[in-house]
Specification:
Blueprint: H1 9-12, E1 22-28, E2 33-40, E3 43-46, H2 54-57, H3 63-68, E4 74-77, H4 78-82, E5 87-89, E6 97-102, H5 106-118, H6 125-140, H7 148-159, H8 165-171, E7 176-181, E8 192-195, E9 202-203, E10 206-212, E11 218-226, E12 228-229, H9 230-235, H10 240-244, E13 250-258, H11 265-269, E14 272-278, E15 284-290, H12 298-305, E16 316-319, E17 344-349, E18 353-361, H13 372-381
Parallel strand pairs: 6-16, 8-18
Antiparallel strand pairs: 1-2, 1-5, 1-13, 2-3, 3-4, 6-7, 9-12, 10-11, 10-16, 11-13, 14-15, 14-17, 17-18
Helix pairs in contact: 5-6, 5-8
């Protein structure tokens, strides 16, 4: 049985889905390929004749009007894509660059320093946390990145020999912006997410993901799981690529919600993202990440990603980071949290819906084989080459 068969439309959509402008992407059995879609009254409506890719769709200045038009082909009920009878739900992006911002919350800054000090050894984390939290944790709260206060905190921590490369990007003038995954490689709601088999200390990272077009305009938001290998990154920050970019290690969805009169950037800035992990061993963990606690505004992070020195002609999405770093013991006292195979991971925000995935090893998850070349071949064969 497919994992997606356990999901229902009403369980993954925003609370105000009837009025939300949602953009997604499905693999349609009828079309025999991926289709940009919108959702209306639980029905999946095809946007392929307007734009064959989500990337090109988001470039349209008349986007909201196009999505609201009444004569779009009906591909079926969303539930039919969740149970596999009509196809399957994909990540709601395609050609866009997939970027992420790191160390954007005070709590996560502390955990990154702990990983660095522990050199990837989870057994040492509790002792280091108890030693550093009273000093670093209190110093960082309420400090705006790049501010005069941040510079004062930096000078103080340097005097105490507690400064770290993670604190530099956390409260210094320059944000950490890295490539999370390659275009076309992200998995969607209902898919498996992958952990590299070498990792014994890892965690989900529930995040809001900003969606931009090529000129850097923020068009909307979605949810993401920036799956992270804490032991790998803890060994060396130079292993960030191996810690972050693996088969099925990036999940995005379920849908992009476009900005309109009722959903704006201000709405996103007040979002609270919650996390639920349920294991086959009976383990359960919850947490939350209020975006209001972020140390850099989303628009500032997007500006550091896309500017005159760095462009993304196919658009880009940006993970904003998380303040949630799980420490609940799982394998024994003092061991902290790590995933087990089969974990169900649920990331939720009322205005964005629910992103659900199941955990497996990256070398067991389906291989990524449908890349840009395959997409172009598929679209040309379907007569959509001019719509790219």
């Amino acid at each position: 049985m497919l994992a997606t068969q356990l999901l229902k439309a009403e369980g993954i959509l925003p609370v105000d889905a009837e009025s939300a402008v949602l953009i997604g992407r499905v693999w349609s059995n009828v079309a025999n390929g991926p289709c940009p879609v919108t959702l209306r009254n639980g029905r999946v409506l095809d946007l392929s004749q307007i734009a064959a890719t989500v990337s090109s769709l988001l470039e349209r200045d008349d986007l909201l009007g196009l999505v609201a038009s009444g004569d779009l082909p009906d591909l079926g009920a969303l539930d039919d894509f969740l149970n596999g009878s009509a196809g399957r739900l994909l990540a709601p992006i395609d050609l866009q660059a997939v970027k992420a911002a790191g160390v954007t919350f005070a709590d996560s800054m502390l955990e990154r320093v702990i990983e660095e000090q522990a050199r990837g050894d989870s057994a040492r984390a509790n002792e280091i946390r108890a030693r550093l939290a009273p000093v670093i944790g209190e110093s960082l709260r309420g400090v705006a990145a790049g501010s005069e206060k941040a510079a004062q905190v930096k000078a103080l921590l340097q005097e105490m020999n507690l400064w770290s490369q993670y604190l530099e990007v956390g409260i210094g003038p320059d944000a950490e912006i890295f490539t999370k995954a390659q275009p076309m490689s992200s998995v969607g709601c209902g898919d498996k997410v992958g952990l590299h088999p070498i990792s014994e200390w890892n965690n989900p990272e529930p995040e809001v993901v900003m969606v931009t077009r090529s000129d850097g305009t923020i068009l909307g938001a979605t949810l993401g799981n920036d799956v992270n290998l804490r032991d790998v990154e803890g060994r060396s920050a130079l292993l960030l690529g191996k810690a972050k970019d693996n088969n099925a290690s990036c999940s995005i969805g379920p849908f992009i919600r476009l900005f309109d009169g009722s959903f704006t950037l201000a709405t996103v800035e007040q979002a609270v993202v919650t996390l639920l992990v349920q294991g086959e061993d009976g383990f359960e963990m919850t947490g939350e990440s209020p975006l209001a606690a972020i140390s850099r505004k989303p628009a500032d992070l997007v500006g550091q990603m896309r500017n005159r020195s760095h462009q993304y002609p196919d658009g880009a999405v940006l993970f904003l980071g998380t303040m949630f770093a799980p420490v609940k013991d799982r394998r024994g006292a003092g061991q902290g949290f790590t995933h087990e195979i089969g974990d169900r991971v649920e990331i939720y925000a009322p205005s964005l819906g629910r992103l659900v995935n199941w955990v497996d090893r990256s070398d067991v998850c389906p291989e990524w084989v449908f890349g840009t070349r395959e997409l172009l071949r598929n679209l040309v064969a379907r007569g959509l080459g001019e719509k790219v």
